[in-house]
Amino acid sequence: MKIFIPMAGKGTRLRPFTLTRPKPLLEIIHKPIVEHLINQITSTLSTKIDEIIYILGDEAYFNSSVVDSLTLISNKYNAKTRVYRQLEQLGTGHAIMCAEESLSGPSIIAYADTMIQGKVEIDPEADGMIWVKKVENPSSYGVVNIDNESNITELIEKPKNFISDLAVVGIYYFKDISLIRDELHTHLQDELPPGKEYLLNHGIEKMIEKKKTFKSQEIDIWMDCGTPKLLIESAKIIMKSNEGLSNQDNFSKQGNVKINQPVFIGENVIFKDSTIGPYVSIGDNCIISDSNVESTLIYNNVKVSNATIQNSILGSNSVYDGSNKEIFLGDYSQINNDE
Asked: Cα–Cα distance between 287 and 237 in angstroms, integer?
């Protein structure tokens, strides 16, 4: 089994945190988003993953250190790493076809801006599968229409009228991905009108028209990481599900310190007269003093003082001295109370 992960976007909605690293490499409880995604897929999958194929953008942003980080993640799953480049953002179908050389055999496509919880099980009789989640506002999503045997009969992008409340979460399985390769190869010959893109769904629709069987499978939880606030909400879900792992003792306490779980703490962290948690993830080498912090992501080498913050993100090597705020502070940024 192969996993294809298109991740060529620059995560502009998550700036300033994506100015120094791609969105899929932002960490939640000391693990990059893309690693959470791979782990969530493989944890209930009975098939071994042989290769993980990453489809990246240009090397100026997705540089060698990004490739090294992704290779380390693949190694954790004893999988080979293959990297392709999508140098123009021409749609999801175009992204997959940038890896055309590898498009053969049983495969999963998973978009790196999503995370899930729930079983990922392959139906051996199906030609393909699409994972879905019921949503309250289906007109904002791509949805599937299914028959009474959970066979997908059509895919509809942002339907104006109600057709289905089963939204596509961005994870797909193909018994033989070469079939969609052939459909997308034809699709890429089309001359599209301005503003249109080459879509993966176009290839799936053509396969369904040719009587290929696609099954839907609903997952329990679907998490979006597209904006800072959505990233924090997704992090809360991840922290709650890993709460039993959050009791760590690799930090030092000075004065009156209270930890309200779940709290995930990196190496060499110092707390002074502070209340931390719940739902806080703290990176390595941080110092937090005279502060109350909850529902916040704090990356490596951060100093926080005299602060009462929640629903915040503090980037690596940042310094914050302030109070009573929701704050999004980028890497190497500094805010002092006297400024």
From this structure: 25
The pLDDT tens digits of the residues spanning 160-176 come to 888 888 988 889 999 99
Residue 20 Rama label (left phi>0; alpha psi -120 to 50; beta):
alpha
Q: Distance between CA 7 and CA 279 in Å, rounded?
A: 27
pTM of the model: 0.88
* DSSP string across 157-174: ES-SS-S-SEEEEEEEEE
DSSP bridge pairs for 32: 27
Among candidates 111, 110, 86, which has minimal Cα distance to 99? 86
| Domains by residue range for the chain, with CATH | 2-239 (3.90.550.10), 245-335 (2.160.10.10)
Pairwise pLDDT comparison (9 vs 109), residue with the higher score: 109
Phi (first) and psi of residue 290, to 5 degrees: 50, 50
Q: What's residue 3's pLDDT?
A: 96
d(CA 42, CA 119): 9
Q: What is the mean pLDDT of residues 218-230?
A: 85
Q: What is the DSSP string of 167-225?
A: EEEEEEEESSTHHHHHHHHHHTTS-PPTT----HHHHHHHHHHTT--EEEEE-SEEEE-
- What pLDDT does residue 251 have? 84
Structure tokens that stand for 146 in this block: 């299914």
pLDDT band at 197 (very low <50, low <70, confident <90, very high): confident
CA distance 37 to 171: 10
What is the distance between the alpha carbons of residues 295 and 313, in angstroms, rounded to a whole number?
Answer: 9
The backbone torsions φ and ψ at residue 21, rounded to the nearest 5 degrees and listed phi first, read: -160, 150
